[in-house]
Amino acid sequence: MSDGDLRILVIDDDAVRASMIEDGLRDAGHTLVTLVTDMQHLLRRIVSVDPDVIIIDLGNPNRDVLDQMFQVSRTVRRPVAMFVDQSDRAAMEAAVDAGVSA
Q: Given 3.40.50.2300, 1.10.8.420, 3.40.50.1000, 2.40.50.180, which CATH number is that of 8-97?
């Protein structure tokens, strides 16, 4: 790993969309990209990858998913960027409270 390489973890249950994100990151020069498309045992998988940055696409996250992200962000203490298809102000505030960075 060179000094500038970030370990980026992309979490998305849509495998096609995750692959598109991965391709974009690789085209931008990031070589250490790991995809997770299965949300089972998510925290364990994040810890095993030990990413520098987490990008997560959740579509329309519910409160349980946001609670899970809170546990993730508290445990791994990494920047988390979350993309959603639909949200409202309360959902965005809940995501920030859960530790999502952007």
A: 3.40.50.2300
Per-residue pLDDT tens over the stretch 30-41:
999 999 988 788
Q: Each residue of 20-74: pLDDT tens digit?
A: 999 999 999 999 999 998 878 878 888 889 899 988 876 656 666 667 666 776 7
Rounded Cα distance, 22 and 43, in Å: 20
pTM for the model: 0.74
